[in-house]
Design brief:
Largest sheet of chain A: 4 strands, parallel
CATH architecture of chain A: 3-Layer(aba) Sandwich
Order of helices and strands of chain A: HEHEHEHEH
CATH topology of chain A: Rossmann fold
Number of strands of chain A: 4
Structural class of chain A: alpha/beta
Shape of chain B: globular
Low-confidence stretches of chain B: none
Largest sheet of chain B: 6 strands, mixed
Strand content of chain A: 15-25%
Number of domains of chain B: 2
Distance between the termini of chain A: 18 Å
Strand order of the largest sheet of chain A: 2-1-3-4
Helix content of chain B: 25-40%
Shape of chain A: globular
Oligomer: heterodimer
Order of helices and strands of chain B: HEEEEHEEHHHHHH
Chain lengths: ~150, ~280
């Protein structure tokens, strides 16, 4: 199946869902050292948060090439969340500083092209912030729910 | 303009006669009066082909880099590469600055016959061959259009860009002409994995254009060549100007303004704006 066909199938499915009890698809890219551990802690502490999020673990938030975000949106994600260590806490010292610059530019470009800035968001979640992770996912899911399926 | 042509020819003759350069890259008369075309002079007898007028706007920096570039060719050993002299308009000069910043070649590898227009270029030409007037009109027009799009609602903006990108025929002229698209393998040619399809379709076109624009953030020196060569008139300059504005606002960085600084996305400050992060 080629790329276009596949994403069109996903879209049709999305539109149908929107009619009755629409649940958005949220793709989250989490840095392995902080945010992923934070999400793990949330799970370990049995904190409830929406199951809309699909987590992808990456070695560092700096690994998150903007093309990954664009591709996720293109292939049917309604929103993307990028999460890494707080500034100064990067396992590789400075990876998250580069991410911060790169993501701001990505968000500005997507906004200029007409994608609502709420669809692509970024957060700092440390390994000890299980409750914050749950909160972030809840808020982002709400944001995207209010926007509805992405137009692609 | 006549004066500039004369200066270029004199300088080129000197460079070739003294064997300080093996090739002079400049402009010559094209197929008619209204057209100029890049040319490569390697012999003193050919020097009078060089000229300069208002149709000489091509960004010649493209010829320096990439797989087949004069200064970085992978097919020619480093010590066999020609010594290049280049006629450089302000746009070309800014691109040269960007390429030096990205360590594509060292400043002393290139002899620059510079033409300035009063705007800052961040590099000292080896020889100043002339002064031209700044083209403020084009810039003002693009800025106005960027503002117009910014004022649209999100869905209007989406529809507007969809319509623009839908015309894309994926000829990659924008990539081929851009001095900063010097990757040995472009992401659009990769198929393991394939990031987006090669055939023109709304999704593929959109992804290609977004990724192309992203790869140029903080690097594009806004020469406008992509806009000029696009056979279906997609206003790519709008993306360039918009993103240049964002980079300057957030990080106080202007591409092509200083050889010494690092490009915006290759560097950071601990106190960069982060009010968009949860």
């Amino acid at each position: 199946m080629n790329v276009t066909q596949e994403s069109e199938t996903v879209q049709t499915a999305d539109r149908a869902e929107h009619a009755e009890g629409y649940e958005p698809k949220l793709v989250a890219f989490l840095c392995k050292w902080c945010s992923y551990a934070g999400a793990d802690l949330a799970g370990g502490s049995r904190i409830k948060y929406p199951a809309n999020v699909r987590i992808i673990r990456v070695p560092c938030s700096c690994r998150i090439d903007p093309k990954l975000v664009v591709k996720a949106l293109e292939r049917g994600a309604d929103g993307v969340l990028v999460s890494g260590c707080h500034p100064g806490d990067c396992h590789y010292t400075e990876g998250n500083y580069y991410t911060r610059r790169r993501m701001l530019m990505l968000f500005k470009l997507l906004e200029f092209l007409g994608i609502d800035p709420k669809r692509v968001q970024m957060s700092w979640v440390s390994a000890s912030e299980g409750p914050k992770w749950a909160e972030v996912v809840e808020e982002v899911t709400e944001d995207i729910k209010s926007l509805g399926p992405i137009r692609t | 303009m006549k004066e500039i042509t004369k200066n270029i020819r004199t300088e080129a003759r000197k460079l070739l006669q003294d064997e300080r350069a093996d090739v002079v890259i400049g402009y010559e008369q094209g197929s008619d009066e209204e057209v100029a075309t890049p040319c490569f002079i390697t012999d003193v007898s050919q020097v009078d082909r060089l000229m300069f007028d208002e149709h000489c706007f091509h960004n010649l920096a493209k010829y320096l880099v990439g797989q087949e570039g004069y200064l970085t060719s992978r097919f020619v050993a480093e010590d066999k590469r020609p010594r290049v002299a280049m006629v450089a308009t302000p746009a070309t000069l800014r691109s040269i600055v960007g390429l030096i910043q990205e360590h594509q070649f060292a400043r002393d590898k290139l002899i620059i016959l510079g033409i300035l227009d009063g705007t800052p270029v961040g590099i000292e030409p080896d020889v100043l061959v002339g002064q031209i007037e700044e083209d403020q009109e084009t810039r003002a027009r693009i800025m106005a259009q960027v503002r117009e799009i910014e004022e649209m609602s999100a869905s209007e903006r989406w529809a507007w860009w969809e319509e623009q990108f839908s015309r894309c025929i994926r000829c990659y002229a924008c990539r081929q002409v851009c001095p900063f698209c010097y990757c040995e393998q472009c992401i659009s040619d990769e198929n393991q994995p394939q990031w987006f399809g090669r055939s023109p379709s709304p999704g593929n076109n959109r992804t290609w254009n977004i990724i192309r624009a992203l790869h140029l953030v903080g690097r594009c020196t806004d020469c406008g060549e992509c806009d000029r060569v696009c056979p279906v008139d997609i206003p790519l300059s709008l993306l360039a100007v918009k993103m240049a504005g964002e980079v300057e606002e957030a990080y106080g960085y202007r591409a092509g303004a200083d050889v010494e600084t690092k490009p915006a996305l290759h560097s950071f400050r601990p106190d960069d704006p982060d009010d968009f992060i949860r």
